[in-house]
Here is the input.
Amino acid sequence: MPFTIRFLLLRLPFKNKVFLSPFSFLLFYLLHLIAFSQQESSLRYCIAFYNVENLFDPEKDPDKNDEAFTPTGFYRWTYKRFYKKLNDIAKVFLAMNAWEPPDIIGLAEIENANVLKKLCYTTGLKAYRYRYVHYDSPDARGIDVALLYRKDRIQIIESYPVPVVFPFEPTAKNRDILYAKALMAKEDTLHLFVNHWTSRFGGHGATIPKRNYYAQVLRKQVDSLLFINSNAYIIIMGDFNDYPTDESMLTYLQAKKYENETTEGTLFNLMFPLLGKNRGTHKSQEFWGCLDQFIVSKSLLNNENKWQVENREAIIFDAPFLLTVDEKYGGVKTFRTYMGPKYLGGYSDHLPVKIILR
Here is the structure.
């Protein structure tokens, strides 16, 4: 129990040194709840991932193809729209974990460190002491992955970008995979990978080898960690632009469906329970699918280990304010920032997803 709470409890006005007055009893009970919740939160970590859909600043970068997201560009991307989007993204994180925003957040489609600084220090997230990990990738448009973390809850002790160079297309400018080693509860190591694999733009079949190669690069990184410690805590998150049943995920990354503790394998995809329910993080025509996924090492699903993924599941955050009516295909769809050149003022074309570690 924190010292300040203990001190307040000891200072409560006891009546006759034995019984509490109704007011004192209520105050004692409330302080007990606060102390208990603080203790509980220290044993619980929320980890989220969100593809925020083209989070550019309005400045022209002479080294990147970002002209479309400038005030005079195709999308007429102004500072007013930029700051609205920053505050909207902060709203998502402040809403998605009930009591507090996530401890760790993986992001896709952010342009640079400047947008991360604005997100952490000029929105409602400022009160939670977020810091970020980011490396500029070779991506031609300048969109990268990044990691936010609450410095009072998480310590990052190592990070680096993992480059991806296709042997069959060596001049392609690909997004890196971001690796970070984190410390939880000041003593437990957590290995994190943030991904945004090659999109299906230009044809699904034609881009399969590219996502397969991303999976091979990532798998090699995972195997290196497991060689050192077969019980390592590993969390892989991202927009993979493939589904859990595609060969990049099943064959090359070897991220399987978890059945029980006897299931063979080292990586398990937490999105499998959602398949066949028309639920997902991204909608294509009438189909909802899980392009955004969480994959974890088996050690995080073992009841005998110190840390486990709660209910062995990932949770899609599909709050009503992130959705809008789908007049063409029925039901709802994501409330995105743009539809073609038309500004809608929404959040993203993806939904965020999270897991809880206890």
User: Anything to note?
Assistant: The longest helix spans residues 204-228. Confidence is low (pLDDT under 50) at residues 1-20, 31-40. The chain is about 25% helix and 30% strand.
